[in-house]
Amino acid sequence: MSLLQLHTEFILMIESNLDSPKDLNALIRTSPRFTLMFDDKLYKNRTTHEHAYIILWAAKRGLDGTICKCLNVGAKYLCS
User: Strand, coil or helix: what is 29?
Assistant: First the structure.
């Protein structure tokens, strides 16, 4: 059975056992379904420092969508 064929409840159980944001990001990248389910969570569960790093990283690469995702979940980027 494919991971994509599992019921949502099982996918949520798998996600709840992931150890890091990198693991969640890896899961998200495997399927559009998982992107819809978990993309917001990936950005919401970050510290201010992590958001600042992500925004700077995305700006250097021209990834406007990533910047918008951070800002949409309440990230505040303060210039120092």
Answer: coil
